[in-house]
Design brief:
The chain is α+β, with helices and mostly antiparallel strands and 212 residues long. The chain has eight helices and four strands; from the N terminus they run βαβαββαααααα. α4 packs parallel to α6. The structure holds glutathione (GSH). The site of glutathione has 9 residues, from loops.
């Protein structure tokens, strides 16, 4: 099994994004659940991701970390799942644009907002995301009157952006704007998203039950 897929994750993490993507791809994969304080910081896992963070994905002897990179990698590794426009296709422009917009500006703006950080007016020009409001307005406009971000079909860019929106709305770091809610509700109802949720929710519920 040289090309075995292994997901390193914790069910209460961005690893949920990678699992959703794996479920969309539909290939068999194994899961290694790591504990934040112990196994995630142990030498065996630091050899996979020196950041001591999840998710990470192993595919045979290749390792990819970063949720967005995992999604992009899987889309290209399994083109039959049709989760990205083929390399060279003009639609690749929109695909890269939204994938990187989510991994960069959205992620940074939302994380800074969660910590209560306000960009001083005179420094907005040097911050990659400018302001949270600019990022949210750009995203809202991109999703208004459109089912998908890239052409007219679901891609890994939708999955990654939608997951960010879902987490953000859940943790109140992204406003529940109608365009976001509509997009989240429609995409999170996909069978692969439901399967991923079920697989990640089960161990969380079991842990909570054991602790009560
Ligand atoms: N930029 C990384 C962020 C990964 C990340 O921060 N993961 C968190 C959980 S959501 C983590 O593993 N935290 C454990 C730690 O930093 O000790 C990605 O997008 O995958």
């Amino acid at each position: 099994m040289a090309d075995k897929l292994v997901l390193y994750t914790n069910p209460q993490s961005r690893g949920r994004i990678a699992r959703w993507m794996l479920e969309e791809v539909g290939q068999p994969y194994e899961t290694e659940v790591l504990d934040f304080a112990t196994t995630m910081k142990a030498p065996a896992y630091l050899a996979i991701n020196p950041m001591g963070k999840v998710p990470a994905l192993r595919h045979g002897d290749a390792v990819v970390t970063e949720a967005a990179a995992i999604c992009a990698y899987l889309a290209d590794a399994f083109p039959q799942a049709k989760l990205a426009p083929p390399p060279g296709d003009r639609l690749r422009a929109a695909y890269y644009r939204w994938m990187f917009f989510a991994a960069g500006p959205i992620e940074a703006a939302v994380s800074n907002k969660a910590l209560g950080f306000q960009v001083p007016r005179e420094r907005e020009g040097m911050m990659g995301y400018g302001t949270v409001e600019r990022v949210m307005k750009t995203l809202e406009d991109a999703l208004s009157n459109k089912d998908y971000l890239v052409g007219d079909s679901f891609t890994a860019a939708d999955l990654y952006v939608c997951a960010q929106i879902g987490f953000g709305m859940m943790f109140n770091t992204i406003e529940k704007r109608p365009a976001f809610q509509k997009y989240w509700q429609r995409l999170s109802a996909r069978p692969a998203a439901a399967r991923a949720k079920e697989k990640d929710d089960a161990p969380v519920a079991a842990k909570q039950k054991a602790a009560s």
